[in-house]
Amino acid sequence: MKEDHCLHAALLCLGVLCYSHGLTMEHLSRARPSLHGHHEKGKEGQVLHRSKRGWVWNQFFVIEEYTGPDPVLVGRLHSDIDSGDGNIKYILSGEGAGIIFVIDDKSGNIHATKTLDREERAQYTLTAQAVDRNTNRPLEPPSEFIVKVQDINDNPPEFLHENYHANVPERSNVGTSVIQVTASDADDPTYGNSAKLVYSILEGQPYFSVEAQTGIIRTALPNMDREAKEEYHVVIQAKDMGGHMGGLSGTTKVTITLTDVNDNPPKFPQSVYQMSVLEAAVPGEEVGRVKAKDPDIGENGLVAYSIIDGDGMDMFEITTDYETQEGVVKLKKTLDYESKKSYSLKVEATNVHIDPKFISNGPFKDTVTVKITVEDADEPPVFLKPSYIFEVQENAASGTVVGKVHAKDPDAANSALRYSIDRHTDLERYFVINAEDGNIKTIKALDREEMAWHNISVFAVEVHKQHQEAKVPVAIKVIDVNDNAPKFAAAYEAFVCENARSNQQFITISADDKDDSANGPRFIFSLPPEIIHNPNFTLRDNRDNTASVLVRREGFSRQKQDLYLLPIVISDGGVPPLSSTNTLTIRVCGCDGSGSLLSCNAEAYVLNAGLSTGALIAILACIVILLVIVVLFVTLKRQKKEPLIVFEEEDVRENIITYDDEGGGEEDTEAFDIATLQNPDGINGFMPRKDIKPEYQYLPRPGLRPAPNSVDVDDFINTRIQEADNDPTAPPYDSIQIYGYEGRGSVAGSLSSLESATTDSDLDYDYLQNWGPRFKKLADLYGSKDTFDDDS
Known about the structure:
The protein is mainly beta. 12% of the residues lie in helices and 31% in strands. The longest helix has 35 residues, at 2-36.
């Protein structure tokens, strides 16, 4: 503590000596005029004397971080008018006045009461003034001065980051820049060496070095290998005071990682790989994998594989799995154990990206031998062709040979095979195959027009191993024969004008043939020999599979004949040719002068002679008179016509209904079952349908029908009843009800006409005698009264 006080005192004395000299000179230059005084005249001629102020003070510097027991004397203020009698009072104001800095108002001494830190505040601006102690009247104008905080080395250097991370490529040259670290010192860089820093490396030798002035870290050893050591930890120190003894220091850690370069070629761990594959393997199937190791990483460690030699180059291929960096050997073509049992490949592994800087390290590739053994497998049969195409003529007889398929067992056993047709492809069963030799035959006649191609599938199965089978498609083409005659291409209907000119064409026809083009066109059109000299129409073959029909004569008339039927013979070009006769319907129509169609209906002739206006008026007058007469006649007839509604008492019409006995009238309420009347067949469960035609018709039994000339009404009715009862198709309403008695007391009276002969009637039925034998019975019943009297 005593040494600190001594050092502080020495520095203070040094500062006072330096600064006092300057202030004293400044004070003397300003104060000297005040010694002599200055005379000025007032308003009334009075001479005033004004004295210049003058200051004498001590040094105004203070050292930071002072920790002594007494306040630090910063300096002293003194005015030249201060005679020492204590009448002058010194006042201090400004930054830190009264808190950090205090002044003795009598002596003017300024002290710092607190420890100062230059890094927090480097200087303070204060104002001093001398006043009269008794009146507080300013004796001098206020004056500013600055108190500066003197720096000491109290802050160690600090790095911007506690930890640094950097990368540098492996095998970099010596002196390659890695990273620059920077430290800072809070001390005053303009005062002494407190902020002068020097960098040095504490850990990381001999691999790295650091520049003392800049802090740049550089490589110090050549050929550093990432595969040997990838990461390094370096400690850098920054020391102030220029690195001399007693300076403060700070450190930081730097992690340096070596990045990869392609400095290592790929290498197979073994010289030969052994693999095996089944004979039944399909192309694209994986056989095995090889891998060349490359200690590099990323794109520098990428390896590509290829087959450069061997007898299996055509049978196998190799691809690269970039996720695992393996070479995948795959089957390229199908194998045959019976023909070759093993293969050999020479595989090369090469780096994808090669760094030219390290090309001298040797070829960045390696080779290995791959031996592949084929294992025998039980294979299914194999057809000699992948597909078959056969031809057969349509309408060929059943049993005609279409073609033959052949398969074999590729295994050494060469098992026997059986053939069959997949019936899902031959639903109509047109074909059959010999199970032993594979011959395909027809079992039905084929029609090319119905189906031109038949696509079936044939199976070949090993006799002793049913699960081993093969399938082959077979396409059978049906060859056309000329079995269809040509016909009109459409339902033609021609129209010819009555005023058509001779040799005028009015329709062009064409033909269609269901046969193939070889047996179809070209078509030949002609008229039958019997009408080749048709007087009305003629035919012209256009030799392009069409024909034109022309008018041979002029002057057609719809009144004479409005429809013509022209037979036309059409022959095809097949061998042998076929022909058919087709009828063309030609209608005679009325046309205008330009040949446009007007009407094709038959019309009566209209006189061409012109009528005068008078004649037309006379005709119209006659028509009007006739219409008036007709209207009058109809009106008179309606007035005399009896009313359409006829009351029951005036109705003279009678219907003859025959009963076995008369009904009971209104009093008979239980004479019959109404359900039976509605549907007599419903009792037996037979319900005839009236919306469809019956499946069978009832044939009346012979012997029941009476003779044509029979007048026996009873037999006639009984016959009809039996026919109706035995006819299942008869409706249920033709029935006759039997009444046990005829009722009495009905207000309406009896409905029977059988007793009408005994009633009084003005009607004369004698005319029935003239109606013939069929009405003899009625004539006897309704004869005249004279007849009855005579009989009696």
